[in-house]
Write a structure and sequence with these properties.
- The complex is a heterodimer of chains A (about 600) and B (about 190).
- Chain A is of the alpha+beta class and about 600 residues long.
- Chain A folds into 3 domains: about 1-210, tricorn interacting facor f3 domain (Immunoglobulin-like); about 315-435, Neutral Protease, domain 2 (Orthogonal Bundle); about 450-590, no CATH class.
- Chain A has helices at about 10-15, 230-250, 290-300, 320-335, 335-350, 375-390, 395-405, 415-425, 430-435, 540-550, 580-590; strands spanning about 5, 25-35, 40-50, 55-60, 70-75, 75, 80, 90-100, 105-115, 130, 135, 155-165, 170-175, 175-185, 190-200, 205, 210-215, 220-225, 260-265, 270-275, 275-280, 445-455, 460-465, 470-480, 485-490, 495-505, 510-515, 520-525.
- In chain A, the strands form 6 sheets. An 8-stranded mixed beta sheet of chain A has the order 6-5-9-3-2-12-15-14, with no helix packed on it. Chain A has a 6-stranded mixed beta sheet with strand order 1-20-21-19-18-17, covered by helices on one side. A 4-stranded antiparallel beta sheet of chain A has the order 10-11-16-13, with no helix packed on it.
- The two termini of chain A are about 50 Å apart.
- Chain B is mostly beta strands.
- Chain B is built from 2 helices and 15 strands.
- In chain B, strands 1, 5, 8, 9, 12, 13 and 15 form a 7-stranded antiparallel beta sheet that branches. In chain B, strands 2, 3, 6, 7, 11 and 14 form a 6-stranded mixed beta sheet that branches.
- The longest helix of chain B is centred in the N-terminal third of the chain and has 14 residues, at about 20-30.
- Chain B starts with a helix and ends in a 5-residue tail after the last strand.
- Mean pLDDT of chain B is about 85; it is low at about 1-15 and about 20-35.
- Classes of the chains: A alpha+beta (about 600), B mainly beta (about 190).
Amino acid sequence: MKYTFCRALAITAIVSFPGWATAQVDDFIEQHVWIDLAATPMQIEIELTLDLGETASAIHLATLALPLASVDVDGTPVGWSDSFSDPGYITDIALPSQLPAGTQTKVHMVARGELDCASLFYPGYQWCVHDSHQTILPMTSAGEAWYLSSVFAFDQFVGSLTVVAPASQDVVSVQGTEEERSDNGDGTATWVFSFDYPTDGVGLYAGDMEAVTSETGFPVTGYVPSAHVTKMEHAVAIAAEVLDYYNELYTPMPADHAYLVTTPNSLPFGGMGLLGTIFLNEYVFWDEYAYIVEQGVAHEFGHTWWGHMSSGNHPFFTEAFAEYSAWRAMGHLYDDAMRTSGSRMNAVWYMYRRTGNADVAVLDPKVFNSPAYGFVIYHKGSTVLRTFEEAAGEAPFTAALRALVQSGPGHTDIDKFVSEIAASSGYDASADVEQWLLQPGFPHLEVRPAVATSATETTLALFALTDDPFAFNLPVRLTFADGTTRNESLTVGEDGSGHVVWGLEGYPVLVEFDPRWTMVREITPGADRADVSFDGVVDGVDLIEVALRQGSFLPDERRVDGGYDPLYDLNGDGAVDGDDLNLVLAAAASH
Amino acid sequence: MEVSMSQRRYERTRLPSRVTVIVLLVLGAVSGCGEQKALSFNADAQPSGPRLWLQHADTHDTRLTFEVWAAEVGAVLGYSFHVRLDDGVVTAAGEVTPAAALGSSSEAALYLQSARADDLAVGGVRRDLGETALDGPVLLATFPLDVTGEVPTPLRVERVVFRRAGGAFVATSAAGGTIVRKGGES
């Protein structure tokens, strides 16, 4: 089973093409698409205006999912051929003559025939659906495109989509505001959508699935097979709240209605987020995957802001930001513990479940071909954003994110990210970018506590040590016997060590490090492994702390929150259970 | 009943002589050894509300047995506390025995005990992550101490933690006390 939630799945694969290194980068300006779903065979007509990126006698466009019937460039019929370097994925369109870089060119093409939905990237799966009940066309992908997008870069355009569909079907076009729907009187209707906000992510649904609309919050309509209506009602309700939150947190999205479309299990992605509309695979509504619904909805709708309203030419700026936003939204909907659970889940999945223990830096170009890609981009990347938030402060970091969104699509890069954080908070994130995003790994930290009491005062000394090249401030929460708490921080310097001494009013029965999981890190007690409360003695507090995590486990499947924290897995077997409790008892009795 | 002369002589030899009695009285007055067998415990005043306190259960020679009780704590997942003592005056005489306050089988609850020279630790937790109401006076543990030095000496109850199933802490007051000699200064 696949669990990929994506915005940029297609382009991520595309940029790893051999042709990437030598590709021209044309600039897409405007695109108008007409698609007749009721015709037999189906017909798609595209008019694309672009600026040539370099002097060229041909342009290279994504191969469509149905056969080309004709192509003209600036009104002159031209020929086309399968790409030599990337056959099946890219089609070379001959220009009437060699044209200089910067020339604005209008390409008009007509494709007609049977839609080939077999996925090229994911053999055995389909990239689209077209039958008598529905047509689902996700964001275009080279070799199976239905509109044109740059195969070499995120490149937004404006334009329109006109759809002719059976009159009985609802039609939703992602990233489009419905301009009009007219009945053609022949059993079909024509829908016109315009793309006023620059985009490179367009989707289309036309079908007769059940429609479920939110009752409160942002208007959201979900389309779902009748068997899953109840679960879609929940998904739509969550989406309505999440979108209200994102609209206020970042900046309102340029759409007044959002859509959630269920795709068949035959499609290779778990979810796909476009601007204001998401696709969710139907398996998400199966009972065994109930845990994915809320986080999937929050992640995919996060792509409205991260991937569409803003974007950079790296999936960190789409996937990591959407995942970060998702758990921030979940924390807003529920509580901080919910947010922490998501952050912990992401950190744990990256730290302990990487395929073959492979690792690569988040922003390393090699990440695209690494087996650690998903672990690094989605799970480490989103947790690192949480780290930046902690360092900059929640409000300043939010302001920086809002500035990125307001800069529009295609303008985000790591330098701009750093400069916006500095502008809003004064915090220079350069060093943190270096250690968290430009080098692989994470810190393994050992902490030794020492508590001393006198008639007038209690002191807590902490000695921290890591062999890994990370320097950071570690949030520390002290809890006293009556439940009162005190927040502190422990600085681990570039030499990998940290030392603090605090005078306290009472004995700290529980010392927690980074209790909100603001970073990818592993923390263990240095003196006695069973002293999980870090108060220098193994006692009933440790027993309770482990018991509270009893039943948590290191998940085998992505996005499963096993509640796992390795601190409490004393025997390191991937599960916190009775064996770990017994180790606490044994450690206490041995003193 | 008639008593023979031989019996009278025998009984008389069992009685201390006047000289012996005087000597013993003098020694007793000087050394106070007549009170060495009368160790006792002055308990601190018991607080109100959720509380935990020490209670003297028994004295045998220089060994005192104590009980730890709790009341009005409400429903809890588990607990933890420490009894601190001056190991120059008293020593733990054997293991601390947790009472089965949260359940009697190991499947129901686990109990922790630790005896360091100056620190006795006791804890308990329900295995099922449920809660047990500790409302009426509930015995949590029993432990014996041997008095090896000069009293008075305090027994302090510290780091008393009760936690609900959700992890929340219950603010709890604690009362210890002082081991003294009966009739002696305290």
